[in-house]
Amino acid sequence: MSPRLVSEERITAMAYDASTAPSMHNAQPWHFRYHRHDRGFELHADLGAAMPHADPSTRGLHIGCGAALLNLRVAVAHAGWHPETRLLPVPGEPGLLATVRLARPGEGDSGLSELYPAVHRRHTSRYPYEETDLPEEVRAALAEAAGEEGVSLDFPTPWHLRWVLDLVQEAEARNLTDRGQAQDLDEWTRTGPAATATEDGGVPDYAFGPRKVGGKAPMRDFAGDRPVPGRETAKFERHPHLALLSTPGDKPVDWLRAGQAMERVLLRATLEGLVGSPATQALEWPDLRWPLRDPLFGSGHVQMVLRLGYGPQGPSTPRRPIREILDIEP
User: Fold this and answer.
1) Closest Cα partner for 149 from 242, 297, 22, 263?
2) Gap between the Cα atoms of 29 and 51, Å rounded
3) 3-state SS of the chain: helix, strand, coil percent to 5?
């Protein structure tokens, strides 16, 4: 590979790898711009994919973009470059979230590169998981993955877990009667023929998972009050495994770090044979988000709740066409 020239095919492949990241309601709120002259990507927020009701601060948008940024870094490292990354590089330009320059060819980051096989295998799984505990060495590996991005990952103790589950349940109850939340779901979910005919973002009905009729897993029902023909019901795990991702601060740069940590944890979990799904309901209500932290030992700001476990892999969901999310400039 030329130290100066990167093919359009390679640029496109790296942007596509980045776009496989999870995001709130699969909105995919990112746009990439590649500059040939300095071999660098810019990551921009796509505010057209923002959710004014569920995510008025754009915290969730930043977390999704952070996940895409981590995938981009993994793809760059896999291609044999060092991903020289800067967050929020231009003061006064909040839409420009990060830059990634392809530096030092032949010196890809091995810690990132080893995650690459999971980039296209990781899918959100909204199915019941097994009642199997997570080995301590796996928990340690996931905590280490988050720590690589300067973010804390903690597994709540039993009494704290009950408290977190209660908060999620309270958020679910509020969402059922909140008109704004219903509007976001209507915009970002696809049912019937539209679920398989679209190339856009959003959650199609085949990825909703079964309707929960038992268990304590914190599941969002993307169907709302709409019937989905042929959808099954299922009992979920009675003792779900949740992990909390927390940052010292609560500003856009912290949200971006949290998104990178979330994806790094999910990729590592995929390599460990786990599946996962986010449980963001309580995070969408300011008065419920702060109590998520451990009142005795917790510090910082909870940015994400992840449900992890052993279970069936979720289906892939639609990705926006690459022509809509990538510009290549001289």
Assistant:
1) 263
2) 10
3) 40, 20, 40
**154 strand-pairing partners:** 244
CB proximity list for 59: less than 8 A, separation 6 or greater = 255, 283, 303
Classify residue 17 as exposed, middle or buried by CB count within 10 Å of its CB (0-12, 13-18, 19+): buried
- With 0-12 / 13-18 / 19 or more C-beta atoms within 10 angstroms meaning exposed / middle / buried, residue 296 is exposed
Report how many helices (DSSP H) and strands (DSSP E) the chain contains, helices first.
10, 13
Q: Are the C-beta atoms of residues 309 and 128 closer than 8 Å to each other?
A: no
Confidence band for 198, pLDDT divided at 50, 70 and 90: low
Q: CA gyration radius for the chain?
A: 19
Contact 265, 145 (CB under 8 A): yes
Q: Which residue has the tokens 């915290």?
A: 59
pLDDT in tens, 221-263: 999 888 899 999 999 999 999 999 999 999 999 999 999 999 9
Interval 267-301: pLDDT, tens: 999 999 999 999 999 999 999 999 999 887 777 99
Pick from 20, 101, 4: nearest CA to 266 = 20
- Listing DSSP states for 131-191 in one string gives S-PPPHHHHHHHHHHHHTTT-EEEPPPHHHHHHHHHHHHHHHHHHHH-HHHHHHHHHHEE-
